[in-house]
Structure formats: structure tokens, C-alpha cells
Design goal:
Blueprint (H helix, E strand, L loop, with lengths): L2 H8 L13 H8 L8 E5 L5 H8 L3 E6 L2 H14 L3 E5 L12 E6 L8 H14 E12 L10 E4 L2 E4 L7 E4 L3 H7 L4 E14 L2 E13 L1
Parallel strand pairs: 1-2, 1-4, 2-3, 4-5
Antiparallel strand pairs: 5-10, 6-7, 7-8, 9-10
The structure holds S-adenosylmethionine.
């Protein structure tokens, strides 16, 4: 994962609009939870923090982390303007910043697959450590139906430097359902749902295909 690319991306205000509205799947997930039973939420790779803000506004105790200091600075300003209390930290998804079992919920929207499969797997393993037993893990990742799959330089099985990404040249690992079952063998999978839509990339429509995964530790 190239941190400088994300720093550059988040430093351009024109890129912010889309990332300030929470994804419907996260809105639905948040609505299925209660701050009484699942108080401590980690938004891992929070970007500008749209999902951290969503959970904080619903009364959860939210921590938000990202490798990009630009993104975290934006979220700190957003928290100040809205009066929401959100703990923030600039750090990698595998940082040992937090004690084991620190969270009831980890949300990670379109983050964990940046890199090799081994990195994806290690991040999933790290999330398991961060969750208390019974805690919930919500994440999204690219499927092999995504239009980016197979484009750009192939650097490992199902792994490409994607030229048609919002941060072009990013390394993406693409998964499928059988692979997800293997990656999540230390969790109980509650649901794997497709999330497919068309988006605009420099004036060209592109097909995106993700999985929305919810699992219990
Ligand atoms: C596609 S954006 C999604 C942001 C946010 N989750 C959202 O849905 O608005 C991906 C984010 O993941 C962050 N990221 C990528 N790799 C990371 C890593 N290894 N550790 C922490 N954050 C990472 C990037 O800085 C970027 O903010």
C-alpha cells in the first residue's frame, strides 16, 4: 500500500464529496446494533471518517484510524464542527496501538485488500485480536467480478497494480467466496453479500463488485 498516494488523494478537496456520505450497507449495519450491547467501535482505515461520524452520531464510542494524516486531520475537524467525540490515530491497520479485545465492533470499508493476499490475511487476523469474543467484524473487499480484476500489472495470483483505481497504481487483491471462507476460518461468517454498482472514473462508467462481509469473532 502506497501511503503517499492516499495522502495526495485526501489533500485534494475535490475528491471529498463522495466520501462524506456513509455507504448504505454501513448505515444498515449500524442500525442493526445498539450502543448498549456493542459500545466500542473501531473504524479501521476510516478515510475522511464518514462511518466514524455515523456511529458516533448514534451514540457509540468510536475510534478511527488511517495511515493518512490528511484523512485523520479532516476527521478531527469534522468531529470539532459536529461536536462528536471520536478518538483518532494515524496508524497502519496492523498497528499494535490497541490492546487485544479492545473493541466490540470493527468496521473496515474498502481498506484491507490493498496489497498482497498475505497482507489481507494478516489484517483479518489482527482484527480478530482486536475484537472481544463475540465481537462483530464488518468489511468490504473487491470480488473477481470487479472490472479492475485482470487490468494492470499482475504481481501475484489475483493481485494487480490497478491503473483504473481512484489512486492509480494501487495494489489490489481480489477475492471470491471460497477464498473468503478460508480467510475467515477463525470467525463465524454471518453474511457475505455482493455490492455491485457503476461508478464514474474520469468520465467513463466502470463496474465495481465488492463483497460485504459480516463475521463474528
Ligand atoms: C477507499 S478508502 C476508504 C476510506 C473509508 N473506509 C471510507 O469508506 O470512506 C481506503 C482508505 O484506507 C486507508 N488505508 C489503506 N491501506 C491501509 C492500511 N494498511 N492501514 C490503514 N489504512 C489504510 C487509506 O489511507 C484510505 O483512507
Amino acid at each position: 500500500m502506497n501511503n503517499e498516494q492516499w495522502e495526495r488523494y485526501w489533500s485534494v478537496e475535490d475528491n471529498h464529496d463522495y466520501w462524506q456520505r456513509p455507504a448504505q450497507s454501513v448505515i444498515d449495519f449500524a442500525a442493526s446494533l445498539s450502543p448498549q450491547t456493542h459500545p466500542r467501535v473501531l473504524d479501521l482505515g476510516c478515510g475522511l471518517g464518514r462511518h466514524a461520524v455515523l456511529f458516533a452520531a448514534e451514540g457509540f464510542q468510536v475510534t478511527a484510524t488511517d495511515v493518512s494524516s490528511q484523512a485523520i486531520a479532516h476527521l478531527q475537524r469534522w468531529g470539532a464542527v459536529t461536536g462528536l467525540s471520536i478518538a483518532t490515530q494515524v496508524c497502519d491497520a496492523e498497528s499494535d496501538e490497541f490492546a487485544p479485545a479492545s473493541f466490540d465492533v470493527v468496521v473496515s470499508y474498502n481498506v484491507l485488500y490493498h496489497g498482497y493476499r498475505e497482507e489481507f490475511a494478516a489484517r483479518i487476523g489482527h482484527v480478530r485480536d482486536l475484537l472481544r469474543p463475540g465481537g462483530l467484524f464488518f468489511f468490504t473487499c473487491h470480488s473477481r467480478r470487479d472490472q479492475k480484476y485482470g487490468e494492470g500489472e499482475r504481481i501475484a495470483p489475483h493481485t494487480y497494480l490497478s491503473p483504473n483505481s481512484i489512486t492509480p497504481g494501487d495494489m489490489h487483491y481480489f477475492t471470491d467466496e471460497a477464498d473468503l471462507h478460508d480467510l475467515l476460518r477463525d470467525f463465524t461468517i454471518l453474511s457475505i453479500q455482493p455490492e455491485e454498482y457503476t461508478w464514474d472514473f474520469k468520465g467513463t462508467p466502470r463496474f465495481a463488485s465488492n463483497y460485504i462481509v459480516i463475521a463474528r469473532r
